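Query structure, 56 tokens:
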């Protein structure tokens, strides 16, 4: 299995904890293809990265 695109576990957990309010976004992986869900998730994260109390 190629392991490109893997994040360090700590960073991944931190991102999940910060974005827990956007949980429905993770459900997109099941509905759509993984690639499409990932691109949507990144776009939304970048667009709203200043919003909320948590600054990444």
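Result returned for the query:
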């Amino acid at each position: 299995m190629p392991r490109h695109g893997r994040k360090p576990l700590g960073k991944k957990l931190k991102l999940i904890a910060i974005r827990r309010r956007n949980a429905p976004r993770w459900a997109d992986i099941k509905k759509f293809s993984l690639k499409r869900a990932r691109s949507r998730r990144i776009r939304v994260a970048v667009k709203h990265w200043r919003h909320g109390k948590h600054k990444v």
